[in-house]
Amino acid sequence: MAVPAFLARERIVARPGFNRWLIPPAALAVHLCIGQAYATSVYKTALVSSFESSLTAIGIVFSIAIVMLGLSAALFGTWVDRNGPRAAMFTSACFWVSGFLVGSLGIATDQLWLLYLGYGVIGGIGLGIGYISPVSTLIKWFPDRPGLATGMAIMGFGGGALIATPLSRQLMSLYDPAYDGTAGTTPSGSAVSMLFLTLGLVYLVFMMFGAFIVRVPAEGWTPDGFDPSTIRSKALVTTNSVSAGNAIKTKQFWLLWVVLFCNVTAGIGILEQAAPMIQDFFREGDTSTVAATAAAGFVGVLSLFNMAGRFVWSSTSDFIGRKPIYMVYLGVGLVLYVALATVGSSATWLFVVLAALILSFYGGGFATIPAYLRDLFGTYQVGAIHGRLLTAWAAAGVAGPLIVNRVLDTQGTPGELVAADYRPALFIMVGLLAVGFVANLLVKPVDSKWHEPSTDAETRTTPERSAAR
Amino acid sequence: MSHPATSHDHGHHHGPGQTHDHGHGHDHGPGGTTHTPVGLIALAWTLVGVPLAYGLFQTVKTASSLFTG
């Protein structure tokens, strides 16, 4: 599918002398906007009340969006790699913003199906394309520090929720003076509709700014002082290329799929239940020693560690290697989970430290996977391969909450649960992390039969560039 | 983190380096080279940095209630 000339990859090839530090803010401009997907809880109750519906019916909106994220990233990954980051960011912005506008119309006219279609389906497609849009570009601009580069962008996805949550609260209190953002007050449906409209317009400007400034490096470009042979000498790192079509036929792709699935499911195990979980762990009789406001603070701490982990751990992987860092995420994560299940209820500070570290590994797992893929499959179609791998996220998004909610349902009634009731769910997560740990251990270099015939990956990545010359 | 605007980051080309940067806000020098204005880099980082700082501040404020509330 051809794109208009102003979006074409050959129009954004950087001239010599271009400063690559303009690329991370371009990526962040997109990821900070689409990260709003994790801030939906802020208006969930308002939507339940506005549609006179249930939490489950409203929760489906978010589930549809995450499933569409996985599907669109997998389906459009090759298109994104072929047409470049500007076309991808522009397309993502159109879908993401249209999703908000259609969703706003749905809320204003009291039609829930429009919210499903808008925010869920249309917005979800924008999420998937936007999530992978800057990844391969960043890896090409930062061959010396791919973990740092992708960590910065994917940190932005975590940061997006940090921005959207308080911003949404403030905007809704502006549109509905009866709502003051505190517990017990609920914004009106029209306030949420106006919020969607406002966010859509703000995100349009930001994402188009990212699409406007992004560039791809010219053929053969490398940063000054960078010696590709230093990369080649590292274990598991290839300078060969594997196509997305061939990558999914390799054992390595599916091992990484299992790694990502296990890591994300384990993280969701805590994220899903964070606020009630800390209260239940420190319940004495009918009351908890942890107040509701402190529980909200705990969710904030987890968000901070989730975001910081994306940047810190992914950057660290540039020095210690991708396989060892996943051994930390999964192996140390497993030990932390066991500690949480067994001694987590002995002190609040211990519970918070353990959960925060687990969430930092959850974030790190997301941010490091593109660099791991680059190491194993090369830069040729790393965006498309990443897109296909994100189906593991979509699957974990369904499995994680399902495991936790099912187990807790068998243990008792919400509001009466105690630490021991969480143990079965936590030990299931321990088992999953063990599976992920073994899968990571089994990762070996990709067999040469899957390598593309030519090793000049850049030439094949951008055929339009050759044609333009 | 490395400084976002060192000359080290402009890189170099190994191959036939005919490039096609049609962007705006760049000073085009002789021989098809470009210079990215430091102001543009600062503006870009500010545009993403300010909302992120706002989000971080608000979240730290909320998180602090875990220790005070």
TrEMBL record, chain A:
Q: What is its main location?
A: membrane
Q: InterPro entries, from UniProt?
A: MFS, MFS_dom, MFS_trans_sf, Proton-linked_MCT
Give the top-rank taxon of the lineage listed in the UniProt record for this protein.
Answer: Bacteria
Q: Cite the PROSITE patterns for this sequence.
A: MFS (PS50850)
Matching Pfam families: MFS_1
So where does this one cross the membrane?
21-43, 55-80, 87-107, 113-135, 147-168, 188-214, 253-271, 291-313, 325-343, 349-373, 385-404, 424-443
- Provide the GO MF annotations for this entry: transmembrane transporter activity
The entry's localization annotation reads: Cell membrane
**Has the keyword Transmembrane helix been applied to this entry?**
yes
Return the CDD domains for the record: MFS_OFA_like (cd17353)
Q: How is this protein positioned relative to the membrane?
A: Multi-pass membrane protein
Transport: is it a keyword of this entry? Answer: no
Q: Domain Major facilitator superfamily (MFS) profile: where?
A: 1-448
Cellular compartments per GO CC: plasma membrane
Name-wise, this protein is OFA family MFS transporter
**Species annotation:** Goekera deserti
UniProtKB/TrEMBL annotation, chain B:
Task: Say which domain of life the source belongs to.
Answer: Bacteria
Q: Basic and acidic residues compositional bias: what residue ranges?
A: 19-29
Show the segment(s) annotated as Disordered: 1-36
Q: Which UniProt keywords apply?
A: Membrane, Transmembrane, Transmembrane helix
Bilayer-spanning residue ranges: 38-57
- This protein's name: Uncharacterized protein
